[in-house]
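Sequence in, structure out.
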Amino acid sequence: MKRIIWCQAVCLLMLLGTGHTAVAESANALVYANLADAKLHTSPGSKASINRHSAIKTPDGQNILEVICTEFQPGSTAKDIQLHVPLDERIKAGHRYELNFTCQASNTGTLSLAPSTSSPDFETKIYKGWQTVKLIFTASAEGSNNLSIKLGKLGVPTTLHLGSIAYRQLVQSPQLQNQWSVFLHATTPSSLAKIPDQLDSPNGKVQRINAPLINQALDLGQLAGSVKERNTAILFNSFQSDQAGTMRLGVSADWWMELYVNGKKEFDTMDRGNGTNRYIPDDHVVNFPVKAGENVLAVKVLSGSAGWRFVCGEPSVGISTTPLNLQAGISKAIDQQTIAGATMIAVGKDQIISNESYGYADLQTKQPLQSDALFWIASMSKPITGFAFMMLVDEGKVSLDDPVSKYIPQMNHLWVVKEKDDATMSLTRQKTPITLRHLLSHTSGLPFLSPLQWHDLSGLSLENAVISFTMNPLQFEPGTKYSYSNQGIDTVGRVIEIVSGMSYEAFLQTRIFDPLGMKDTTFFPTKEQ
């Protein structure tokens, strides 16, 4: 079954400038500083100029302000060249703010930011590539209507490109009670807007357990005494807010969760799980609306296969810079022999910003990797398969909600795993038909691979591979869980063949690769490639 696609470029970095997408807990909407009225102040012996009409754009297409530093006096300090940017709203003492902008410099150096006259300067490293800078701070005293950006440590000559500056006032993070109200093995109630004394469960009433956070975590498995996958816990907490607005909280769970504020769901990971085994507040930073007065936070946590916990706390704050380049990381991976080489292409709105290759195409011969080298893109073929299938949906030839058995009769009345342990497995017959939507969303219950595929992905035709999938039970009833599945996408590929009357490879070649001029994307690389 030859479904291996080869394509140019292993890493595609889409540069999405964040000048208009700052994320934080805020009582107010984003406000944009007026770069057009920014003014330079230089100390004697230092020289700099402003170009307000540069043709250069940020990666997301914003106009920029260009600051050109040409001379510093001996022993210069950061304040010897300052850019004062007018703010539409005055910085208020004791209030918390978020500020962010996009920038790049011709040399690596240091910027100092002074968001209010009496606040300490915040220093951040600036790199040659485009990057975003985000600062979260509390003003220690009343500030002016200007943001001071100090360039005296950038070095000369240096050209700084500065995108739009966004800022906003923040509401403090919620001061939650240390004690949480915990209901183990409970059924989700119709309303989560109030903290109850008891909840229903399949085995009767469940009483509230008061449990404290220890090191920002609730160990639900320890409270329950055991862990079985997809056990349910409902957690409640409350907090006061002096004003209506938006707050921010860092959360994590082992393994699935839903978060509700005043009865409304604001965040969930039910479709994907926690996504990381770090289990720290920075795993998921949630911004949610609050009302003035008392607010109720409720969290539904479903246990994973080996753990059951909830983590909650204030996420990391302060000043952060995110360089929009990967050169250092790629070079480190090559030096550590994690990878042999990589090609990176950075694409802006209307242009290719960078197209570079690193390392080797062949480690034995030390043949350098070229920017047009082909790579096996492995599971990146899945979205291509989905795109191909949706072409047939658009043409009315197939529906997402069609049962798969309409096209593959053997894919019906399959066995489903009811219970299993290390020694035994009990099965039941499938009740819900597998639909094409289930296949594409990895909720069909089909396992990751057929046993016949473990050692050779290409040993079977799609037709025979899909038949082999019916020889083993589904892992769960279709539509009830998520589990990443090669078998599901392979089955979609077989449906494409049946509906189109073409082989999967031929369909992609004639309907996608050829029309788009993708001459270096293929199932069958030539000797030259």
